[in-house]
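As noted in the main text, all predictions were made from sequence alone. Below is one such record, for Asp23/Gls24 family envelope stress response protein.
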Amino acid sequence: MSSDNQLNYGLDMDTIDIADSVIIDVATKTLATIPGIHSLSPRFYDELVEGITHAFGQRSLPGINVKHRKGFIEINIYIKALYGYNLIELSKQLQLEIKQTLKNMLDLDHVKVDVHIEGIVKEKEPTLHGN
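Prediction:
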């Protein structure tokens, strides 16, 4: 891993760098495709922690963060779900979709996705899907 929080792939003499912000963008766009997710749930201390975690090999956006672990990438996602959805199935679908999308787009195999449901919202409130 390079010091600026990027994944490096060495292909003979060539190198491909993938920034953490790209991983976050892919995960965020995947979230918007899954019914039952209302929004990311920023935690009150996200902005305070951002400067500290960035120095230790972590990148975050309010409600989502990427951590580099030994041998794998860990993504923590904090969401608000829509009322009436099976939260366990919703979480499993989110984990699967993010892992598959990261594999297909970035060739990332070793990804751990932890979903944290921070609240439930009635369907009438605006969502990630723009409803």
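The CA atoms of residues 8 and 17 lie 5 Å apart. The helical segments are 20-31, 46-55, 87-106. These features were considered when defining construct boundaries for the mutagenesis experiments described in Section 2.9.
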